[in-house]
């Protein structure tokens, strides 16, 4: 589906940011940034993680105040006192990291920050709240029940709630930070239709994404930041993916994407490190059998809801198995908890690093060594000297960019946070590495680095089972590709026969 692009720039500017600078703890993250947002235009904001994109948007939305510079909105200099004021004035944001309240209803989350409708007694009219939320959800193609609690939703469903909430106000400026990270192709198509409708109404849209196909499909213009500085702004019709990548990271595209050769020709007839026989969890996983050998990267593909995440969670002891068997090096094992899984050498990097993996307000060092802290006891105390030395090794080996190992992991970019999480599980010297969306929400440069780390780990003999919703990633890294649909394994494809078309054929439920 091609989305109509309005390439004739509108003379009226919705919002300008002039000479914006911002520092945290003496570290400058934005340096004299200028950007204009035109009405009825999609403006892609691009750059590696840590380039300053999110900080700039948080200033625009009133979450942060700039140290220097000003915002010009509706033709006048403006200084937001807080995010609520910016929202009330028509600045709406879909954040990359979901900001929903899990213990209240979908409807309450959708209308949060708006005035709830009241009944004759002056009480909240919950029927109208849920009715209004239902209409907003329907407008983006979602049939979620607004009365359900957000805590019951998948990550993809939560993303749809975030989008509906952003659309609940009559926004003049809409910021979308990685809005499609968890969506299916069908949901993305619907979102792009909505974006086009908003453009026709004159809404200025900032679109942040690491997916080049989306940038060229939906954007009119793009601005690139690097290391907190403005690099260029250019109409999207006057550039190319190769040029944008080179501008963002200072390297040629050919240096970033090198498909490694398969290195597993020797594994046939060897005992698999991980074997699953007829695994069922009575919820989403249905009679799955698979095997992963030492040094092999097996990719799991499938649409949202196919049961991929549920499968690796069951293997790691995070959900109950109703039937089936797990074998490690040919020996049947009983895994009923993550502790059991770790004892058998299984590591798990979850889908959502911030909600499920990291301790955001703890240090890089503590996050790295969390899984093996008991091994560093000296009498009844922790030997922090040894812990620090070990953390230094992982920082060096994985190329983690951090001001200090004492820095809170919250302050790292997405790619470096993911490396910290990887190092935690490498600290247990695993035999099997379960990766669920290992490069979600990281920039192109960090994605390439993580790919190289995964490939290097496999070459050392680690058995890797990797989930990814990005077909190029699955095809670039996997020695074999397993395709799931509705909880069942539909295909087991060798690398040489795996094409995007064939993977999607099985992912949609077709069987030859």
From TrEMBL:
Superkingdom in the source lineage: Bacteria
GO biological process terms, semicolon-separated: monosaccharide transmembrane transport
Domain ABC transporter residue range list: 15-252, 267-511
Entry-linked Pfam families: ABC_tran (PF00005)
Chain segments annotated as transmembrane: none
Record keywords, A-Z: ATP-binding, Cell membrane, Membrane, Nucleotide-binding, Repeat, Sugar transport, Translocase, Transport
Organism this protein belongs to: Paenibacillus silvestris
The protein, known as: ATP-binding cassette domain-containing protein
Topology with respect to the bilayer: Peripheral membrane protein
PANTHER family named among the record's database cross-references: CARBOHYDRATE TRANSPORT ATP-BINDING PROTEIN MG119-RELATED, D-ALLOSE IMPORT ATP-BINDING PROTEIN ALSA-RELATED
Keyword RNA-binding: no
Gene3D superfamilies reported in the protein's UniProt record: P-loop containing nucleotide triphosphate hydrolases
GO molecular function list: ATP binding; ATP hydrolysis activity
Cleavable signal peptide: none
Keyword match Cell membrane: yes
Subcellular localization, as worded in the UniProt entry: Cell inner membrane; Cell membrane
GO cellular-component term (any): plasma membrane
Coiled coil residues, start to end: none
């Amino acid at each position: 589906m091609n989305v109509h692009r309005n390439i004739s720039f509108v003379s009226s500017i919705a919002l300008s940011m002039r000479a914006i600078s911002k520092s945290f703890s003496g570290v400058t993250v934005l340096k004299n940034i200028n950007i204009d947002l035109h009405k009825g235009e999609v403006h892609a904001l691009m750059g590696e993680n840590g380039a300053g994109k999110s900080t700039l948007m948080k200033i625009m939305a009133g979450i942060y105040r700039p140290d220097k510079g000003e915002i010009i909105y509706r033709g006048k200099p403006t200084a937001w006192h807080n995010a609520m004021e910016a929202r009330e004035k028509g600045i709406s944001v879909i954040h990359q990291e979901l900001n929903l309240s899990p213990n209240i209803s979908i409807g309450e989350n959708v209308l949060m920050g708006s005035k709830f409708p009241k009944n004759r007694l002056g009480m909240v009219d919950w029927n109208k709240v849920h009715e209004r939320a239902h209409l907003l959800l329907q407008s983006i193609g979602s049939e979620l029940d607004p009365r359900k609690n957000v805590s019951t939703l998948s990550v993809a469903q939560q993303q749809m709630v975030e989008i509906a909430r952003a659309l609940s106000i009559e926004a003049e400026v809409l910021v979308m930070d990685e809005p499609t990270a968890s969506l299916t192709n069908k949901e993305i198509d619907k979102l792009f239709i909505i974006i086009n409708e908003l453009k026709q109404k004159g809404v200025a849209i900032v679109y942040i994404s690491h997916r080049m196909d989306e940038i060229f499909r939906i954007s009119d213009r793009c601005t690139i930041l690097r290391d907190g500085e403005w690099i260029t702004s250019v109409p999207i019709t006057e550039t190319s993916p190769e040029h944008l990548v080179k501008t963002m990271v200072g390297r040629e595209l050919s240096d970033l994407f090198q498909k490694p050769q398969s290195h597993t020709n020797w594994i046939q007839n060897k005992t698999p490190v991980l074997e699953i026989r007829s695994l069922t969890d009575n919820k989403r996983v249905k009679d799955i059998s698979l095997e992963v050998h030492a040094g092999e990267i097996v990719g799991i593909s499938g649409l949202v809801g196919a049961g991929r995440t549920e499968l690796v969670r069951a293997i790691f002891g995070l959900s109950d198995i109703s039937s089936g068997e797990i074998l490690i090096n040919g020996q049947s094992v009983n895994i009923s908890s993550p502790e059991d899984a770790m004892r058998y050498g299984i590591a798990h990097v979850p889908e959502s690093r911030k909600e499920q993996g990291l301790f955001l307000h703890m240090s890089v060092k503590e996050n790295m060594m969390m899984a093996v802290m008991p091994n560093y006891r000296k009498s009844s105390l922790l030997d922090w000297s040894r812990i620090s030395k070990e953390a230094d090794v992982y920082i060096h080996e994985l190329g983690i960019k951090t001001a200090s190992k004492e820095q809170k992991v919250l302050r790292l970019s997405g790619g470096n946070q993911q490396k910290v999480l990887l190092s935690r599980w490498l600290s247990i010297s695993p035999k099997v590495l379960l990766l669920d969306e290992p490069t979600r929400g990281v920039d192109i440069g960090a994605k390439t680095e993580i790919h190289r780390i995964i490939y290097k780990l496999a070459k050392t003999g680690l058995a890797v089972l990797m989930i990814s919703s990005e077909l190029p990633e699955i095809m670039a890294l996997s020695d074999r590709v397993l395709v799931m649909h509705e909880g069942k394994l539909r295909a087991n494809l060798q690398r040489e026969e795996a094409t995007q078309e064939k993977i999607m054929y099985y992912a949609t439920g077709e069987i030859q």
